[in-house]
Amino acid sequence: MLLLLPIAFISGILTVFSPCVLPILPIVLTSGIDGNTKRIKGVITGLVVSFTVFTLILAFIVRVLSIPVDTVRLFAVALLIFFGLSLIFPVGWQKIQTLLEKYWGFKPIRYKNSGFGGGFFTGVSLGIVWTPCVGPVVGAVATLAAVNSFSLSAVFIALVYALGTGLPLYFIAKGGSKASQKLSFVKKENQKIRQIFGIIILATALFIWSGADRALQAWTLNTLPESWTQLATTFENKFNIRSELDKLKDKEMMKKVQPGQAPLRQGYEGQAIIRDVNLQSDFNGAKVAKEDLIQGCFGKDCIPSVDKPQFESAQEADKWLIPDDLIFALEYRGVVRAYPQRIMNWHEIVNDEANGTPIVVTFCPLCGSALSFERKVDGVITEFGVSGKLHNNDLVMYDRYEGNLWQQITGEAIVGPAARRGEELMKIPIITVPWSQWKKEHPDTQVLSRNTGFSRNYDQYPYGTYEENDELLFGVKDLNRSLQIKTVVYGIEFEGFSKAYPESVFEAKAPIIDSLNGINVKLEKQDTGEIVVTNLDTGRKIIPTRLFWFAWAAFHPETELYQK
Amino acid sequence: MKPFNIFIILSVLVILVGFVFFKNGFNKTQSAILKQDELLLDVPGYLKYNETNFSNAKQKGKSVLFFAATTWCQTCAELEKEIIERGAEIPKDVTILKVDYDNDRAMKQKYGVTTQHTLIVLDKNGKEVKRLIGIYFDTLLQGLKKV
Questions:
Q1: Which end of chain A is more exposed for a tag (fewer CB within 10 A), N or C?
Q2: For helices A241-256 and A152-181, what crossing angle results, to 10°?
Q3: Cα separation of B100 and B94, whole Å?
Q4: Worst-scoring range by mean pLDDT, A145-154, A283-292, B30-39, B63-72?
Q5: Angle in degrees, CA B129, A51, B107, rounded to 5
Q6: What values do phi and psi take at B146, rounded to 5?
């Protein structure tokens, strides 16, 4: 560690000779153009501080606050432009300051563009905009920062490296200042010189923003000899600094990582749950048109999914569930569970597990559709959440792996890479029945507890008379009114062919034998209330979807409707 | 108006015009350069990142996402040179996928990448197991062995 500090310092110095310093040179060189050494010190200090701080916390900003790295840089560019303009037009800036003080009664940043403070802020912004060279030293520090293992040694190394970079830059600025003092024009026209400095700041900011700095670096790399451009890396390699840094890294990582845990994402094999994943917004290869997705509520997780579900016994649930309450129930991999609609109205998604199999139970109150899937995206176990968007009134979910958008009723990926891969979630049978019926058949059932971690009034139905009335909350393309729109139907889909059966046709309890595109199917209501659909030709089961008629018709425009 | 003020205003105008020119011009040339680069890549374990290549890489085993900016990032270029020269040393189950650091914002955001020359090692399920920044080929090979 002690050996690392001087090496970090020297490689900091040597970095100044590599092309990545070029974009910031003009500002540094002219920062003392009027002979003001305070400003030089300000710019260099700001640069050193922001370089150190941002190497360490940029990863945090991007990951935790999910602000894209380009946005952070753009913000710093805007600051630089502002500083530049305030130097170019000092009179205008004075006026704005007085205005602000007068009307809002607050004193804006006491930003004196001539002194240490002004230089400091310029330096700080410059440190953010400037994409630093990544040699082994910066790389090692950034790696530690990326996995959130901050340590005192990482902070020290970053700081010492930045100081090393600051030292030659300081002398460059001093030299620039000395040279300009020799010109007689400069001595007389201090104000004008500051305006020129402002122009240089403005030019640098726009230059970096346009990406021209990168082109300049590319050009220098091709033109200058390698021995020159790779001075810092050659040095770092010579001292075998890498193995030292690796030791440091391993030590920090060991502290962080418990046996059996991955460094970044916890959990078992092949699981990725990225809570702050960004929703996919590229409609390239999407299954829906952008304008068909409607914002139902603002932002993802505006309706919070239940991610750590707790369960209680039927006796306990009986204290608050009434016999006619609808529940969504499944028997899967040895678990028997009921998810009361009264809870699902408020959460719509429960990320659950059935004896090690990851499942998600979903419910869209506006479509009356409850479906369950295995929660895997591209083979990776993840969670689902409410995206806040609706398509034909149906819940659009997102996954916490890639941020794809998924249609709840079909289980299809509609936007994002999963849509382009043509992914569809694996359906798990789930039924919608009254609590009394389910309890009778499955006295040993587990019931989702109201203890969800959120405080909601589960005694209240959040959508008023929605389930009975003739209104929709959002638009539906080609609304099909062959039935009252909220008639409950069971939809089945088979080899691209679909048919809907109104719930009332099962009241007779006699099995229905029907033909679906030439294939014989049997639909039968069980004592549990479940509608079992069997393909009579193969003996296989088909999973029906229970939902409101309008929603089935919206997603299956070619559907047939069963008539008695 | 004083001649100096005219000079100041003219310079600001020139800078703005230059900015608009550069902003449009450079984005185009940068992507053009990258496209040409892809044609040169015929190392079996080193491919351009896209969804197909990525899902194939996962089938094979580990994948390494290499966030590289080859036009202006000198250290990325050095590593790329090593990868191409020593491609035979890349383990058979590993695919290195080059991600365009300059233009692929979605990938940067998804993996929380903040700097060029970032390498992320993923297992066959696409789970991140290691992150390496600013390293060269030998360290990469060592890192892959440890995983």
A1: C
A2: 130
A3: 19
A4: B30-39
A5: 35
A6: -70, -30
Neighbouring C-beta atoms of residue A517, cutoff 10 Å: 12
CA-nearest of A525, A459, A535 to A499 is A535
Domain range list for chain A: 4-235, 266-448, 488-561
CA distance A122 to chain B (A): 19
- pLDDT of amino acid A76: 86
Residue A93 and residue A194 in contact, taking contact as beta carbons nearer than 8 Å: no
- Residues of chain B found within 8 Å of residue A233, distances taken between Cβ atoms: 75, 78
Eight-state DSSP code of residue A67: -
Burial class (CB in 10 A: 0-12, 13-18, 19+), A22: middle
Query: CA of B68: which chain A residue's CA is closest?
Result: A134
Spatial distance between the Cα atoms of A461 and A441, rounded to a whole number of angstroms: 27
From residue B11, how far is each of A86, A205, A344, A559, B17 by CA, in Å?
A: 15, 14, 63, 67, 10
Closest Cβ–Cβ partner in A134, A206, A264 for B117: A134
Nearest to B114 among A69, A136, A140 (CB): A69
What are the backbone angles phi and psi of residue A52, rounded to the nearest 5°? -65, -50
Quick one: residue A208, left, alpha or beta (phi over 0 = left, psi -120 to 50 = alpha)?
A: alpha
Contact A272 B23 (CB under 8 A): no
CB A472 within 8 A of CB A554: no
The model's confidence at residue B136, banded by pLDDT at 50, 70 and 90, is confident
Backbone torsions φ then ψ of A391, nearest 5 degrees: -130, 120
Beta carbons of B133 and A134 less than 8 Å apart: yes
> A264 by DSSP, 3-state: which?
coil
pLDDT of A256 over the 50 cut: no
Measured in whole angstroms, the distance separating CA A2 from the mean position of its chain's CA atoms is 39
Beta bridge partners of A531: A525
What is the three-state SS of B26-94?
A: HHHHHHHHHHHHHHHCCCCCEEECCHHHHHHHHHHCEEEEEEECCCCCHHHHHHHHHHHHCHHHCCCCE
| Rounded Cα distance, A78 and A76, in Å | 5
Contact B125 A270 (CB under 8 A): yes
CA atoms within 13 A on the CB side of A467: 13
Inter-chain CB proximity A277 and B110 less than 8 Å = yes
Angle between helices A4-15 and A241-256 (to 10 degrees): 120
Residue A477 tokens read as 């393309």
Poorest-confidence range of A151-160, A387-396, A433-442?
A: A151-160
The SS3 call for residue A262 is coil
- Report ipTM (2 d.p.): 0.74
